[in-house]
Structure to design on (826 residues):
C-alpha cells in the first residue's frame, strides 16, 4: 500500500485548542496494524448533548446500529473509535463486540452503557476482538487529556495519508465558544450518507434536538456533497458533542436551531463541516487533484444534485481530470446519463473561467491552450449550466488515478 | 494508448457467411485515425425491415436523433457508420453533418434519405467533417460485397482491442436462416441503454414491428446486462436488419413476435445478442477478467437488477477483482448502498462455488485458499443470495485496472 502523503495534504495542521468538558486518549490495541495507534477514547466528564447522522446503507455495521439506538437518549459520556476493523457484517459476533466494548468503556469512565458511542473503520467481515479494548480502556480514561486532537485524528486513519482536523469559534450571548472536529475518509466515500467517520466537539450548551437540527441542516451541502468513488460505506458516522462547559462563562443554552443566538454557532458548524469534508476529498485514495463541480440552471435543486453527482462519479470524467485533459465531451455524457431533464442545445460548460461549450456545441471562442492551463492546476472547478431552470448544486470530488487502483487492488491481503 | 490485444480476446474469430440481401464495404476516410479504416457502409439492394434501440442519454448524438426519426418508416437501404468522431454535442453542425451523409449515401445507393441509417463513435464535441464521406461513398456502394464482416467490425472500432463478430442460424418453416452480428464497445459502457454500436443482419423475412418486439424483449438480458464503467454513451445504437431474402427459399414472413414460427429465430437472436454483449465486456478498457454477477432471492427482479449493477459498477469491487482479492466485504458494501431491500443477517455470498459468507457473517467453513484460487481465474462468477424473495438478475462486467486509467487519461489528446 502506498504510504506517500497526498500532494493535496495541508501544508500544516490546524492547532486545536482544548474544549472544556472533553478529554482524549489514544492507544495501540493491536487490532490489525503494527507500530501505530488504532483506538481513540473521548471522555465527557459531564454528560454532553449528542447528535448524529449515519450511513444510508441497508447493511450497516454493528457500531452504527449501536449508536442509532443510544442516540435516542441524546447524552454521551464516552466515544470509542477503532481503526483496522469495521465490525461490519459480523453477525451476532459483531453485536457481542459492541456490547463488550460499551461495557468496558462504561466501566472505565463510570457511566451507563447507553451513554457510550462507538465507531469502527477498516476491513469488513472480519470478527473484531473487542477483548483487546477491554485491557486498555481503563488506563486510557485515566490518562486522557484535552490536547490530543491530532493524535486522535491519526488513530482513526485507515488508508488516509494525513490526519484531518479543523477548528472554529462562534459567539453565544457574547461568549466565545469553540468547535473542534476531526474526520477520516480515503475510500468508500459517496454522497447520500453521513460521511466516513467524523467527530465534532463544542463547549457550547445546546439541547440535543437543536444540535441534531443544525447538523442535519448542514450535512447536505458538506459531507453529503463529497464523493471519492461513489461507494457508500457500511460504517459512515458523524457525531457532534456539546459539553455545555461554556455555560459557566455565560453562554446560554440553545434550545432551538432557529434561536437567533444559534446563528453564529450554526454558521461555524457548517464552515467546520465543509472544511473537514473537503479534507476528505483531498485525501481520496490516489487523489492528485481536487475537483469542485457546480451545476446551475437545472429544473430543480434535486436535479442539479443528481447531475453534479453523475459528473463527479463518472470514471471517464475522473480519469480525464487525472490526465489533465479538458475533455468536456465526457461532461456532456455524464449530464446525459443522469436521467434528469436536460436540453442538449441549451447546455454550457466551463473549466475554471474558460467556457468550452455553449448552446449545445463547442464554444466558437474556445481556446484549447487556456483550458489545458486550467487542467494543470491542483484545484479544478467545473461548471455546467443547464439553461432550463433555477436549480443549483455543488459537489466536491477528486480525480481517478492509477494509485486508486493500486491501493484498492490489494487492501485486504 | 495501449495497443495490446486484450488477454480475454477470442482465440479465433467466428467466420460469418454471407447474408443474402446485404453487401458491405469499408474505407479510410481520414476522420481521425491514420492508416486504418474508419467508415463502413452496408447496402441493402432491396429494402430491409429494420428495428433499433438507442441510448437513454438526455444528450443523444445527432446520428441517434437521425435514426430515431427514420426508424418510424421501418425500412432500410443503407447504413453508414464511422469511427473517430461521435458527432455528439455538435449542435446545428451535427445535424448538417447527418444530412450531408444521408444525402451522399442515398445518392450512392439510389434510395431515399429516410431509408438511410447512421451511427458515429469516437470523440464527443468535435465537428464531424461529413464531406470526407461524400467522396468515398459512391465507390464503396459499387464495390461492396457479402464477405466483409470482419473488416466491417474492424472499421467501427475505437479503443476496442479486437473486432467483435458472431453468427447464428435459425429455422423458419424448415428453412435455415442466418443471423450475423457485429459490435464495438470498450468504454462508456453501462446498462439502461442499448449498447455501444451493434448491427445485426438476417436474411429472414420479418415485419419491422415483430423484429422490434423481439429486439426489445432480449435487450434487457443481453446488452443492457453489461457494464464496463457505469458511463452511458450519447451514441449507443443497436440496429437489426432483416433482408427477407430467405423468403425466396420458402421461409414465410414473420408478422408477430409471438408467432410459433418466430421461436427459433427469437432464440437465435437472443443468443447472438448475448454473445456480442459478452464480447464487449471482455474487451472493456483495461479488462483482464470477465465477471458474471448473479443476484438471487431479492424482493423483485428489478431490485435484483439494481443490486447486481451496484456490485458490477463499484470501483472497489472491480479493483479487488483486478487484485485477485476475494474481498467479499466490498460485495456487502455494494449490496448495502444499492438502496433496495436487504436483510444483513440473511445474506449469503459465493465466489465461484466457494461460499464465503452466510447468515450475515463469514462462512464458518470459509477457505481463503479456495476463494483465492477462484480469483486467479480469467472468468469469475460472483453470486449473492438476499434470502428474502424470488427476484433474480444477472449482469456481466470486467475488472478495473490501471490500464483503464491509462487509456482514459489521454484518450482525446
Amino acid at each position: 500500500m502506498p504510504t506517500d502523503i497526498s500532494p493535496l495534504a495541508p501544508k500544516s495542521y490546524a492547532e486545536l485548542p482544548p474544549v472544556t468538558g472533553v478529554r482524549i486518549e489514544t492507544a495501540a490495541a493491536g487490532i490489525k496494524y503494527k507500530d501505530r495507534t488504532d483506538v481513540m477514547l473521548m471522555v465527557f466528564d459531564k454528560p454532553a448533548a449528542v447528535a448524529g447522522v449515519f450511513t444510508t446503507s441497508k447493511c450497516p455495521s454493528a457500531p452504527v446500529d449501536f449508536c442509532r439506538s443510544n442516540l435516542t437518549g441524546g447524552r454521551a459520556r464516552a466515544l470509542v473509535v477503532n481503526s483496522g476493523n469495521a465490525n461490519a457484517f459480523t453477525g451476532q459476533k459483531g453485536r457481542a463486540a459492541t456490547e463488550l466494548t460499551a461495557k468496558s468503556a462504561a466501566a472505565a469512565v463510570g457511566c451507563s452503557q447507553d451513554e457510550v458511542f462507538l465507531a469502527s473503520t477498516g476491513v469488513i467481515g472480519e470478527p473484531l476482538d473487542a477483548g483487546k479494548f477491554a485491557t486498555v480502556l481503563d488506563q486510557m480514561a485515566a490518562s486522557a487529556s484535552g490536547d490530543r486532537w491530532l493524535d486522535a485524528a491519526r488513530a482513526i486513519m485507515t488508508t488516509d495519508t494525513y490526519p484531518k482536523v479543523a477548528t472554529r469559534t462562534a459567539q453565544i450571548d457574547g461568549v466565545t465558544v469553540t468547535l473542534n472536529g476531526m474526520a477520516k475518509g480515503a475510500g468508500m466515500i459517496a454522497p447520500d450518507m453521513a460521511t466516513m467517520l467524523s467527530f465534532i466537539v463544542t463547549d457550547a450548551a445546546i439541547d440535543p434536538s437543536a444540535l441534531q437540527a443544525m447538523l442535519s441542516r448542514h450535512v447536505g451541502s458538506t459531507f453529503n456533497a463529497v464523493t471519492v468513488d461513489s461507494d457508500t460505506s457500511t460504517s459512515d458516522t458523524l457525531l457532534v458533542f456539546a459539553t455545555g462547559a461554556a455555560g459557566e462563562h455565560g453562554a446560554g443554552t440553545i434550545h432551538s436551531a432557529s434561536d437567533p443566538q444559534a446563528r453564529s454557532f450554526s454558521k461555524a458548524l457548517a464552515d467546520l463541516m465543509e472544511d473537514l469534508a473537503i479534507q476528505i476529498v483531498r485525501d481520496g485514495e490516489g487523489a492528485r487533484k481536487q475537483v469542485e463541480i457546480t451545476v446551475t440552471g437545472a429544473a430543480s435543486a434535486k436535479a442539479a444534485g443528481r447531475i453534479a453527482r453523475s459528473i463527479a462519479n463518472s470514471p471517464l470524467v475522473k480519469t480525464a481530470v487525472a490526465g489533465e485533459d479538458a475533455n468536456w465531451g465526457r461532461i456532456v455524457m455524464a449530464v446525459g446519463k443522469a436521467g434528469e431533464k436536460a436540453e442538449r442545445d441549451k447546455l454550457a460548460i466551463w473549466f475554471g473561467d474558460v467556457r468550452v461549450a455553449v448552446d449545445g456545441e463547442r464554444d466558437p471562442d474556445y481556446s484549447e491552450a487556456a483550458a489545458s492551463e486550467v487542467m494543470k492546476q491542483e484545484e479544478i472547478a467545473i461548471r455546467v449550466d443547464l439553461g432550463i431552470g433555477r436549480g443549483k448544486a455543488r459537489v466536491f470530488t477528486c480525480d481517478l488515478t492509477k494509485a486508486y487502483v493500486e491501493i484498492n487492488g490489494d487492501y485486504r491481503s
User: Anything to note?
Assistant: Confidence is low (pLDDT under 50) at residues 190-195 of chain B. Chain B has two domains: 22-282, 290-409.
